[in-house]
Specification:
The complex is a heterodimer of chains A (about 240) and B (about 280). Chain A is an all-alpha fold and about 240 residues long. Chain A is built from twelve helices and no strands. Chain B is α/β, with parallel strands linked by helices and about 280 residues long. Chain B has ten helices and 13 strands. Classes of the chains: A mainly alpha (about 240), B alpha/beta (about 280). Bound molecules: adenosine-5'-triphosphate and magnesium ion.
């Protein structure tokens, strides 16, 4: 499959312009930034705290924006126009994902600057974050395809924000209820484990298992996206 | 002549509600084909099936000789233009930004965008935000977007239903010019005068079935009862039956020099529709 950068960029440009006028959706980036300010002001931030904000960004900015822009295309019947055009699924979703991706990167950088997070191994953290973003983009896409309106999208995303955004609190629960130990394998928890390992001075050789788990989440979510899209392609 | 659309025994059932039943028709290259029917008769459903947005329950539909299930993949999308009754625009963006996106998606020049904007009479309004447009203007932007890439085959689902007569007329002229240049048009409408002015052939659709299919002129001739209406010089209108009886009467009026004008009473497509289906075309 050959992707047309021109078409991806056209969709990206359109979405950027549209989001800049859609405060209901774009103002979500204020949420993690506000949290970063609040916690940043409380003094020396721990890894748990940095990642509470990072995970919140991934769930609220990455997944929600992706979910909302796709749900709106459905609600306003504009997705059909794109589907009938020469743009392929990958180009349509690629253009839209690029928007969520860039807004996420900007939000993450701002938040990390506020809370003063400087990972000991930037490369590993960047790889882990990018793989995580792929997962959240796919998750947002699926939920966006499943919801019919933007309002529905903003409701359907709440459990995601709760589960992934505040997931580190769930770890406390795991300690009490061993049956919930699968929570450790959630992408947000994996990300925190990577971060701890990195601060302990470990390298790629040590964190690769966690990275593979993250990657598995991203791959499964992407395959699920393709499946849901196929289902929704026809009226 | 070559068939661009071929439909055989097409049926669609939603749940257990039939929306289309045993629909058969062909559209020839270069013709304007009209699908006439009241609301809920299955016009949009037919367009959705033909353009690969919906799968039929049974029967066959081919466009450009390709099964409709395959029209989604491949280069066919570039050859068709679809104006659906639920096509949408980006409400927060200007007319121009909406069309620019499609210029890039279809690899069409910005010069072409200006041309289609002129065609739909929006050349001077392109900076306007779509959410601020009237229904008719929105419809014209959608039409402009559909024509942007100069498709060989146009699917137009009630293209002028939201337009005033002046704008409808302009769109009709535009469509006729496109048709003269070789574009094949599949059009649905419940406006019988639109069908009469534009279509080479029309199909009457009622409750998911095609009741009648022919050229508008042939239909009118077929359903004409041969009666005449004579306007007399004293201002009176007299309707006369066809045949010897009517001829005698006309002879009488004419010999007495009483006739102002004579009209043959050909039915309109709307009249025929009511006669065939017992339903109004609304
Ligand atoms: N997705 C759907 N699910 C269930 N029923 C549907 C669906 N789409 C259409 N129908 C039904 O199929 C029938 C035909 O609908 P269709 O939209 O094709 O009519 P139409 O001729 O386009 O009418 P209009 O002039 O109002 O646009 C209607 O009874 C409608 O309720
Ligand atoms: Mg319809």
């Amino acid at each position: 499959m050959i992707l047309s950068w021109k078409r991806i960029y056209a969709i990206f440009q359109k979405d950027m312009k549209d989001l800049s006028k859609n405060l209901f959706v774009s103002s979500i980036i204020i949420l993690p930034i506000m949290m970063a300010f609040l916690y940043g002001a409380m003094g020396e931030a721990t890894i748990d705290l940095h990642y509470m904000i990072i995970n919140l960004t991934l769930a609220s900015v990455t997944a929600f924006i992706q979910c909302a822009v796709i749900a709106e295309e459905k609600e306003k019947h504009t997705l059909r126009g794109l589907m009938l055009s020469p743009a392929s699924v990958a180009e349509i979703l690629g253009g839209k994902s690029l928007v969520s991706f860039i807004l996420t990167v900007v939000t993450l950088v701002v938040c990390m600057m506020i809370t003063g997070y400087e990972p000991s191994n930037m490369l590993i953290i960047v790889v882990a974050l990018v793989v995580s973003m792929l997962f959240y983009l796919a998750l947002g896409t699926i939920l966006g395809l499943l919801s019919r309106t933007v309002v529905e999208a903003s409701v359907i995303i709440l459990p995601v924000i709760f589960l992934f955004g505040f997931g580190s609190m769930l770890m406390l629960l795991v300690e009490k209820v061993p049956a919930l130990s699968f929570i450790e394998y959630l992408p947000n928890i994996q990300l925190i484990e990577i971060a701890y390992d990195v601060e302990a001075g470990l390298g790629f050789g040590d964190v690769w298992v966690n990275l593979v788990v993250l990657l598995a989440w991203a791959v499964v979510a992407t395959l699920a996206t393709a499946f849901v899209y196929k289902k929704k392609e026809m009226d | 002549m070559e068939n661009i659309i071929e439909v055989k025994s097409l049926a669609k059932v939603f749940g257990n509600q039939p929306a289309l039943e045993d629909v058969n028709f062909n559209v020839k290259k270069g013709e304007t084909f009209g699908f006439l029917g009241p609301s809920g008769s299955g016009k949009t459903t037919t367009i959705k099936i033909l353009t690969g947005q919906l799968l039929q329950t049974s029967g066959e539909a081919e466009v450009f000789g390709v099964k409709n299930s395959a029209i989604n993949n491949g280069s066919y999308r570039r050859r068709i233009g679809v104006l659906s009754d639920n096509s949408g625009l980006y409400q927060r963006l200007s007319i121009e930004d909406n069309l620019k996106l499609y210029c890039d998606l279809y690899d069409v020049s910005k010069q072409r965008m200006e041309e289609v904007l002129e065609l739909v009479n929006l050349g001077n309004e392109k900076k306007k935000i779509v959410s601020k447009l009237s229904k008719g203007m929105t419809q014209r932007v959608l039409l402009a977007r559909t024509l942007l890439h100069e498709p060989e085959l146009l699917f137009l689902d009630e293209p002028t239903s939201a337009l005033d007569p002046a704008n409808s007329k302009q769109i009709h002229e535009g469509l006729r010019r496109l048709n003269e240049k070789g574009t094949t048009i599949f059009l649905t409408t419940h406006d019988m005068s639109e069908a009469e002015t534009l279509c080479n052939r029309v199909a009457f659709l009622n409750k998911g079935k095609i009741q009648l299919l022919d050229e508008p002129k042939a239909l009118r001739r077929q359903f004409a009862d041969g009666s005449l209406t004579v306007e007399l010089k004293n201002g009176q209108f007299v309707t006369l039956p066809g045949g010897a009886e009517g001829a005698e009467e006309v002879y009488k009026y004419m010999s007495n020099n009483e006739v102002e004008s004579i009209h043959s009473n050909e039915p309109t497509l709307g009249d025929i529709f009511v006669e065939i289906t017992g339903r109004e075309l609304v």
